[in-house]
Specification:
The complex is a heterodimer of chains A (117) and B (113).
Chain A: E1 4-7, E2 10-13, E3 19-25, E4 31-38, E5 42-51, E6 54-57, E7 64-70, E8 73-78, E9 87-94, E10 107-108, E11 112-116
Parallel strand pairs in A: 2-11
Antiparallel strand pairs in A: 1-3, 3-8, 4-5, 4-9, 5-6, 7-8, 9-10, 9-11
Chain B: E1 4-7, E2 10-14, E3 19-25, E4 33-38, E5 45-50, E6 56-59, E7 62-67, E8 72-77, E9 86-92, E10 102-103, E11 107-112
Parallel strand pairs in B: 2-11
Antiparallel strand pairs in B: 1-3, 3-8, 4-5, 4-9, 6-7, 7-8, 9-10, 9-11
Classes of the chains: A mainly beta (117), B mainly beta (113).
Amino acid sequence: DAGITQSPRHKVTETGTPVTLRCHQTENHRYMYWYRQDPGHGLRLIHYSYGVKDTDKGEVSDGYSVSRSKTEDFLLTLESATSSQTSVYFCAISDDLAGGYSYNEQFFGPGTRLTVL
Amino acid sequence: QQQVKQSPQSLIVQKGGISIINCAYENTAFDYFPWYQQFPGKGPALLIAIRPDVSEKKEGRFTISFNKSAKQFSLHIMDSQPGDSATYFCAASMNFGNEKLTFGTGTRLTIIP
C-alpha cells in the first residue's frame, strides 16, 4: 500500500463521542487526502492537505476536521460522531506532478472501518 | 452533484468474455481520467489512466476508450478472468491529477467460470 498505514483499522464507537483516525506515510509525499466510501456513493473527498498545516475542504466535510503538523501524518477527527458517519475511511497520498508527459497518481491506504452506534 | 456517472452498478461476465464499464462526466476542465480497482478489504489501486489527447490506451487486457466530444470514457477488460472480480471506480481530475479526484459510484464485477 505504497508506505501508507491507517490506524485503527476497525473501530466501534457510540454516538456523540469524539473519534480520531490517523494516516501515516513514509513516502514524503506532499498531498494527503481523506475519503469516505459508502455503497452507492463511491469515494467522496472529506478533506485534503497540500502541505504541513495547509488543508482544505472536500465535498463532504461537515462534521469532520483535519490536522497535519508533520509531512507524514494526517489526522481526521470526528468531533461528535453520528450514525451517518458510519463508513469506511481511506487515506490517500500523492506527490507533485513530475515533469514531462505524466500525471499524478494517488495511492490509497488499507482503510479504517468505523461503526457509530 | 454527481459529476462523474458510472454504469452499470454491477456486472456479471463469463470467463473469457469482455467486461465493459462506462463513465460520463460533466466538467470539460477534467484532463485526467483514471480507473481504480478495489478488492474486498483493500484500498483502491490505480489500474490504468488516460489523458484526453488520446482516444484509447491499452495495457495488457485492459483498455480505456475515451470520447471527448461525448464526454464519456469506458474500461474494457478483454479475456476476463476470475481474478478480475473486484469493484472498479472511474474518476476524473483537473491539472493532470494534481487536483482532487472525483469518483464514480463504482461497478462490482463478477467473473463466473
